[in-house]
Design a protein that fits this description.
By secondary structure, the protein is α/β, with parallel strands linked by helices. It has a single domain, classed as TIM Barrel (Alpha-Beta Barrel). The chain contains nine helices and eight strands. It has an eight-stranded parallel beta sheet with strand order 1-2-3-4-5-6-7-8. The chain binds zinc ion (2 copies).
Length: 257
């Protein structure tokens, strides 16, 4: 069994064949999925998916790219859903994105901090989106004492040293497609470095498609290629990676199945 801890199956790129994509994930051994809602529209459609499929859970939060649009009403709405809906297992994805830079940094910081505080209030883990913002992410997590809830560094792109800093703050390191890319050195070093009990796998589909499908649309079933690659790097069996990463995610999300 495999747990895809970060998917966007409600993305419009799946509008034509969503059911088939989800069926193929099952055929490829994916037994659990955490789908992500990151604004009004995708939080609503992600919750709908959790009602249609018993093995799909969701995280909800406000994406840093849209930080400047988040209102107090939005935050209150997220709080209400996260406390009432049983299949909301985390707050996220939240964080900082300096690559697209579509919201001013100070606004991104403010929205990130507010959502960490909300997660602590609700006692839910957080899912972190960090794009070219490593040091500010670490500083804010530390200042806000995010360790209290912990969570996931999604599609982790930092160094092995940064991974250790995150693990020491009660975070799991999640790897996706880039670990399979021939020219990507850092995610491979991170895969070798991170202890098994702190490792998770994800697709971030429809983005970041692993080899051998790089360049095409990604889907949850392809998480197996991520697991295979990590198994090779760590020199242990695919089954072991699948089992441990699934157990890690279930523990973090408090899923009992
Ligand atoms: Zn992300
Ligand atoms: Zn995402």
């Amino acid at each position: 069994m495999l747990f895809d801890t970060h998917a966007h199956l409600n993305d419009e790129k799946f509008n034509e064949d969503r059911q088939d994509v989800i069926a193929r994930a099952r055929e490829n051994g994916v037994s659990l999925i955490c789908n992500i809602g990151y604004n009004r529209e995708t939080i609503t459609t992600s919750l709908e998916l959790t009602r249609q499929y018993d093995f799909i859970y969701t995280a909800i939060g406000w994406h840093p790219q849209d930080a400047k649009t988040m209102t107090d009403d939005d935050l209150a709405w997220i709080e209400k859903l996260a406390s009432e809906e049983k299949k909301v297992v985390a707050i996220g994805e939240i964080g900082l994105d300096y690559y697209w830079d579509t919201s001013p940094k100070d606004v991104q910081h403010d929205v990130f901090r507010k959502q960490i505080r909300l997660a602590k209030k609700l006692k839910l883990p957080i899912i972190i989106h960090d794009r070219e913002a490593h040091q500010d992410i670490i500083n804010i997590l530390r200042e806000e004492e995010a360790e209290e809830v912990g969570g996931i560094m999604h599609c982790f792109s930092g160094s092995p040293e940064m991974a250790t800093e995150c693990i020491n703050m009660n975070f799991y390191i999640s790897l996706g497609g880039p670990v399979t890319f021939k020219n990507a050195k850092k995610p491979k070093e991170v895969a070798e470095h991170v202890p098994l009990d702190r490792l998770l796998i994800e697709t971030d589909c429809p983005y970041l498609t692993p080899e051998p499908y790089r360049g095409k649309r990604n889907e949850s079933g392809y998480v197996r290629y991520v697991a295979e690659k990590i198994a090779g790097l760590k020199n242990i069996s695919f089954e072991k990676i699948a089992e441990i990463t699934t157990e890690n995610a279930k523990k973090l999300f408090q899923i009992q199945v």
